[in-house]
Design a protein that fits this description.
By secondary structure, the chain is mainly α. It contains 8 helices and no strands. The chain is flat. The two termini are 26 Å apart.
Length: 293
């Protein structure tokens, strides 16, 4: 009976974990876009001698509480990750143990990397690494939620379709990496005095744009394969619409001088596009009847 309750709990817990993993990316973007990256100038304390923001803190009340709030969300993530891990263990789902453990350990890794980011005064490379680790954890959380119904058996997908899915998800990851380079070279550093990556923003933005166009063409070619299942086609259709909206938003924000609100929406769009790409890959690699996509 306990194992049955634990199995039923996997649905809400894994969903809460996935939503939280995506949310912390968005709130992390809010920290950067409001210039609050050094609102808590040290780690693990917020300010020397206190784990909480203090009155009349030199960084300002607004900035310190924005950064502190983002740190607090990490504890919410820990709670959901721990609860999910316990549910996986009690339900006897041995196939999910590595995924659930990876979520729990990865969040602690994020905490350490976040500390390094603060202690290196928001070095753009550590900021980018912080974001890319979140992308890995979002992929893991998506797998957990999708495979919650039962042990997922790999299906014998045709080689060409399997190859398409691997290239598609890999190229999507490359697009996201190039996006972080654009961000590292752009104006939203998280603090006014933080240096930016020493590359021409126009050049990396152009490379990012070209990579997005190629991804869209690859997605169309993928969708046109006659060997696809209805489920995979459904996910590719959703991905295409998300990517189209994300690409349009990217062009608009670039020509408007990257205003904060649009950049924040673009960050949210990135997480949705990545989840969409990962779900396509899952639908090709695993049998649909054992997945909850």
């Amino acid at each position: 009976m306990a194992s049955l309750r634990a199995a039923r709990a996997l649905k809400p817990l894994s969903l809460a974990l996935l939503v939280s993993q995506a949310a912390i990316v968005v709130t992390g973007g809010a920290v950067r876009l409001t210039g609050s990256g050094l609102g808590c100038p040290t780690w693990p304390e917020c300010t020397p001698g206190s784990y909480f923001p203090v009155e009349n803190q030199v960084e300002g009340t607004f900035h310190s509480w924005i950064e502190f709030g983002n740190r607090l969300l990490t504890f919410v993530l820990v709670i959901f990750a721990l609860a999910t891990l316990i549910a996986v263990l009690r339900s006897g789902r041995k196939d999910l143990r590595i995924l659930a453990s990876g979520q729990f350990l990865g969040i602690f890794g994020q905490g350490v990397l976040g500390g390094i980011t603060v202690l290196t005064d928001l070095n753009p490379l550590t900021v980018a690494s912080h974001f890319l680790l979140s992308i890995v954890l979002i992929a893991g959380a998506t797998s957990l939620h999708s495979r919650r119904k039962g042990p997922a058996a790999r299906k014998d997908a045709q080689k060409v379709i399997s190859r398409y899915s691997k290239i598609h998800v890999t190229w999507t990851a490359l697009v996201i990496v190039l996006g972080t380079v654009v961000t590292a070279a752009g104006p939203h550093a998280g603090d006014a005095d933080v240096p930016r990556l020493d590359v021409a923003m126009q050049d990396v933005a152009r490379m990012h744009s070209i990579s997005v166009i190629l991804l869209m063409l690859l997605t169309i070619a993928f969708y046109r394969r006659s060997e696809l299942t209805a489920l995979t086609k459904h996910h590719i259709g959703i991905f295409f619409l998300l990517s189209l909206a994300q690409g349009a938003l990217g062009y608009i924000q670039y020509f408007l001088g990257v205003p904060e609100l649009l950049v924040g929406l673009h960050i949210l769009g990135t997480t949705l596009v990545w989840i969409g790409a990962w779900r396509i890959w899952l639908s090709v690699q695993f049998r649909a009847k054992e997945m909850a996509l």
